[in-house]
Queue: 2 jobs
Job 1
Amino acid sequence: MSTLHDFLTHPIETLERALHIRKEIAALEKALQEVMSPEPMSKAEIRAIAGPKRRGKRTMSPEARAKIANAQRLRWAKSKGLESATLAGSVESTPVPKTKKKGGMSAAGRARIAAAQKARWAKVKMATK
C-alpha cells in the first residue's frame, strides 16, 4: 500500500497524469452503468437506434421488371439453342446448329455391356437351378 511519502516522491507531471486517468476511468464507469442499467429502453430510444421501419410492399418499376424479364428470356433462348430474344419477349425461332454431344456411349460399347450383363444373369440362373 502506498504511503504519503511514496505519493510525494512522484513528480507533479506524473501525479497530474494519474489524476487525469482516474477521471477518465470514473467517466467510463458511469457510461457503462448507463448502458447496462436495468431500466428498459423506451420505444422512442429503440426506434432511434434501429432506424426507420420499412412499411408496405416493395414495388419494382416497369423498366426494371422489363429488364429482368428480357435477361431471363435471353438465358432461356441460350439454353434452348436459339439465337436471341427481343425486348418485346418473342424469341426468334432460328435454331443454332448444335455441336456434337460430348460424352455418352457408342452403340458398340452399349452392346458389349448388354452382352456381359446377359452372361452374368445366365450364370446366376444356372446357379439357382
Job 2
Amino acid sequence: MDVRVFETKAEMGQAAALDAAAILREAIARKGEAHVIAATGASQFEFLDALTATPGIDWSKVVCFHLDEYVGLPETHPASFRRYLMERIVARCHPGAFHFIAGDAAEPAVEARRVGRLIRTCAIDVAFVGIGENGHLAFNDPPADFETDEPYLVVTLDEACRRQQLGEGWFPGLEDVPRQAISMSVRQILKAERILCVVPDARKAPAVRACLESEVGPERPASILRTHSRTTLYLDRTSASLLARGET
C-alpha cells in the first residue's frame, strides 16, 4: 500500500483526482472504456469535486458501479447514496452507464443478486473507497466477511456506523438511520485493478491507525487493503495524526 499524506483536504482531493483521471484515461485508451466503483459520503466531497472538474476524461466511455446503499431509502431521501451520486457524478459528467443499487427494492437480497450479476461481467479498473470511523470498508462493518465471493451483500449496520451517519448530518436522529444496507463485499472490492482510498478528518485517525498498524483482520475491515498491491491511501494531516512517524 502506498500511503500519501497532504496538509489539507483540498490538496488530498486534488492529488487523488489527478491519479484517478490518469487511470480512467489509460483504461479508455487501452480497451475503449473504463469500469469504476464509486464511493460516497462526506469523505469523498473534495475528491469528487476535483475529479469531476478534471478535463480530458471521456465520461461517455466510463461505466460506474455503486458501492453501497441503505435498505429502504428512496432515491429522493437526502441521505440516499443514489441521490448523492446523481448529483455529484451523473449530473456533472454524464457517464456512459451507472449501475445503481435500488435500496428501496421490495426484496433487498434479490437486488443484491441483480447488481452482483452485472459486476461479475466486468473487470474493474479502479475502486474509489473510504474508511469508516469504525474501520469499515463500504458498509462491511466489523467483523467483516472476508470469505464470501458474492459481489454484494445485505448487511446489518452496527451502532458506530449509524452514529457516524448521524454525526455527518445525513439524518435528524439515530432512530432515522437505517439498520441495513446493500454493500459491495470485501472480496469484490479487492478485485479492482487499482484502489484509491480517500480518508480525511481527525475523526478517522483512530481507524486509520488501526487499519495500518494493527493486524489485518475482520475486526478492522479496511486493514484488508494492505493485501492489495495497487492500493493508494490518501490522508490529510489530521487523519494521519496518530500514525507512527514511519507511516507518514
